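Per your request, structure below.
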């Protein structure tokens, strides 16, 4: 039910349209005994569903937004923004922890290089979400920038982010997997990028 109230109000809007249709039909048949003000119920319901969708941000929407922020920060080559979204508990293959990933990200995105021209999310799906964490799978179409040895080349990649909810209540990335073009060892991927 919360999905239709807070994430996708289309079902609620459809119900409001049906209610409004029934009210208009009732008004058309019983004009003398029907208060015209009742015709405002349908638009009021539509407004309520849209307002709930705008005002309430669900855990699913928070994970989607965090993922988009990482993709945007990578496009802007903003290491600090990416690092801010990585959990203190980050661990990959028992060999890359938060400190190691922070150093790799800072080396990967120095201020004076233009490696990525653009990133465009082509598919994003939250496959798991709960109060303690979640999982997001997404695809990105990347155009490499002029400083890259692959300048102006398009690269499609698929990723899986595992999120955890840190003690401060924020969702942050706990683990990262690149699932396409192929499953690649994460350390090798970082070294290839440098």
């Amino acid at each position: 039910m919360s999905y239709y109230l807070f994430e996708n109000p289309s079902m609620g809007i459809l119900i409001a349209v049906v209610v409004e249709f029934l009210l208009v039909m009732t008004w058309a048949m019983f004009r003398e005994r029907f208060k015209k003000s009742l015709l405002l119920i349908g638009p009021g319901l539509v407004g309520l569903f849209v307002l709930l969708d705008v005002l309430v941000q669900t855990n699913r929407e928070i994970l989607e937004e965090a993922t988009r922020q990482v993709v945007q920060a990578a496009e802007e080559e903003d290491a600090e923004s990416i690092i801010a979204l990585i959990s203190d508990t980050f661990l990959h293959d028992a060999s890359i922890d938060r400190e190691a990933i922070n150093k790799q990200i800072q080396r990967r995105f120095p201020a004076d290089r233009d490696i990525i021209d653009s990133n465009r999310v082509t598919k994003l799906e939250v496959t798991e979400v709960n109060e303690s964490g979640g999982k997001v799978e997404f695809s990105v179409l990347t155009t490499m920038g002029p400083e890259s040895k692959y300048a102006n080349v398009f690269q499609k990649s698929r990723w899986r982010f595992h999120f955890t909810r840190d003690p401060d209540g924020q969702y942050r990335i706990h683990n990262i997997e690149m699932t396409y073009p192929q499953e690649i060892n994460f350390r090798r991927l970082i070294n290839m990028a440098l």
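Residues 2-55 form one domain.

Regards,
D.
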